[in-house]
């Protein structure tokens, strides 16, 4: 009996999983899946406790789905990147495995880890097969006429969309149940020391039920009807106008193929709408940042995409940083957003842009502090998307917002939360406030109001940032 192993990483699902399907391609082979608990690796990458909790809850659902296929789920405990390849090879030898399959991860450390695993498994006579699965279109396969990667989104999206439409994004056939198993499932940890979630369990269960069934149900609900109104509603944080699929995509409880296929099917049935077009474009952004990460791996090493912006004169002010982290800036929309992340482990996209720009441009604090804080608190923390979003907001990235475009946090609030519904939900101090909710201290003093005054004058902060960026241009000249 041949024995295959699917090593699951950011692809915690049983359906439409390229590595698992490849492991199951031989109908007679017995197959197991393995998931690695690697606290050192998680710590060095600032993986949030809320995301680990979500992964562990997802494993419980996944184990059920795999059991129906007679595929056991093994759990490998290994401290770190440096120990994992050898521990995996030992596990494979112990079970007499012939082939290991995994879906590629594109970050620098993950690539190095997989190279080492390839060497060690080959030494033991075991084949290690890596598949493209994380993106709708594999990184490296979309290049410009000169062979280089796209660094600008619009031309990238044009060719990306051609590929997506040509393939139709058909999900893979479901794996067939196995006749035999070569191991029993391992007990799954309910928690991992050092990775307690900052989100209350009831909140996490309410906002983020785990598993691929939930992911597919969420996708079906969204792509069924809500998608048509997406373009109109996606910027209003008080409304559930977006899919809220990012946590499921980040850990691979659903695949980008499944998402795109659902959107394309909706289009085929109901015709193209601005909503479907826009949502497909968001999935293109997801792929784009992963392609950028492969083309410019320095973004994995805390370096700005635009090298000259490394010289920006960021301020150092721990107290100001803490106020931003805790949602006490005195700008209600910024504070509501930061507290949303603290309460539910997720933040609406419009607000990620507002808060990121506030840190980098109103406070002139290094965007990498914010990037790290987001990773430590987001259930959907993903290096490529997070880095891309931060470098976009800080104007240090490829195809970033121009440095002189600086959101006014009060105007953003008036525009995207006009009646203050979102603010009231997350900033209880303003729950009953009947003045200008977007600028509570703007029209005189409010004795007894337990909400802080703005920590900066936006107009002055804006000038300071413009000068900082202009100083770079002078150095360039
Ligand atoms: C500063 C900053 C940090 C961010 N950090 C992350 C992160 O760590 N992980 C993450 O998944 N997204 C991140 N994003 C992108 C975006 O905010 C989230 O993907 C989105 O809010 C998720 O909500 P949703 O699932 O309802 O998205 P929808 O609007 O329904 O979009 C569908 C999917 O498209 C993808 N997507 C949407 N917008 C973007 C984008 N701008 N860039 C890349 N992919 C996108 C996501 O996978 C999302 O689930 C960040 C954006 C900014 C500005």
Features:
20 helices; Serine Threonine Protein Phosphatase 5, Tetratricopeptide repeat; five-stranded parallel β-sheet; 5 strands; 49% helix; Rossmann fold; alpha/beta; DNA Cyclobutane Dipyrimidine Photolyase, subunit A, domain 3; binds flavin-adenine dinucleotide; 477 residues; 3 domains
Write the layout of secondary structure elements.
Blueprint: E1 3-8, H1 18-23, E2 30-37, H2 39-44, H3 49-67, E3 73-77, H4 84-94, E4 99-103, H5 108-123, E5 127-131, H6 153-167, H7 201-207, H8 212-224, H9 230-233, H10 246-251, H11 256-270, H12 274-295, H13 318-326, H14 332-344, H15 349-362, H16 367-377, H17 383-394, H18 409-416, H19 421-426, H20 458-476
Parallel strand pairs: 1-2, 1-4, 2-3, 4-5
Helix pairs in contact: 4-5, 6-12, 8-11, 11-12, 12-17, 14-15, 15-17, 16-17
The structure holds flavin-adenine dinucleotide.
